[in-house]
Amino acid sequence: MARTRFVSLLIGMASFVCVVTGKLRPMPEGGLPRDLFGLGIASKIRTDRNSTARASSDFGRIVKAAPEAVLHPAMPVDIAALIQYSMSSPAPFPVSPHGQGHSVRGQSLAPGGVVVDMLAMGRGQHRRINVSADYVDAGGEQLWIDVLRATLEHGLAPLVWTDYLRITVGGMLSNAGIGGQAFRHGPQITNVLELDVVTGTGEMVTCSHEKSSDLFFAALGGLGQFGVITRARIALEKAPKRVQMNRTLMEGPKSTPFFSEDDINRLAGLAFESSSAAIYIIEAAMYYTDTNDSYVDQKLEKVLE
To answer: In which domain of life is the source organism classified (predicted)?
Structure first.
């Protein structure tokens, strides 16, 4: 069975969830156009203070901006209907998809407009994760940790991970997705086979390398400027059944659980010697099977040299 030995940890990067806007014009007095609430999605729009307050800040907590309303979509067509209405309105308003809100300067906010609660599509019994032999189809609102759990049930896993998995598929793919395997397989966006995107005009498009490729490559890593990713088809590989680590997560202080006490003391000594120096941590993983188990430690020492 394939196993892997880890030699330290490098924290992965979070993602942005950005704003889709129309050409802004003055708002009618009282906020959003009143006929918005005559649409079929009206029952999924919340304007109460509790809802708008929760959508007024992102993970960075640097910028605060209140939307006029929050949409809780049941499916991508609800997002398309909202964007289409904004674009056709005499007073278009900003629309911003919001997953876990892992932006830092208000990129997932929609001041004076509508925030789309992407996680709403993943609530209830409608699980938008479907695993096949070579890929997984995952809704843009799904968390990577849930994608991992679903694929591992089939002995499979995506090729590249970030070290923080409680972030949405759509949000991460709007950024890049860099992890310890990226040096071999590229970032997460290079391992995507197909996307469903709601464009800035409200059109629902399925795109890939061969179909609507301009939109496909623009949406991947496009920081939300070209549409809302509502589904991604992600390439899979066979997952190792066992993992061997060189220390447990419980060793060392709780604030730095991936380092032993000796490692922490050594890092502190280096920092004391030169307060202006930067200390870099390199992540390394060695995959091996039972056939070469006997000399993996010697090989690892050579790599670390």
So the answer is: Eukaryota
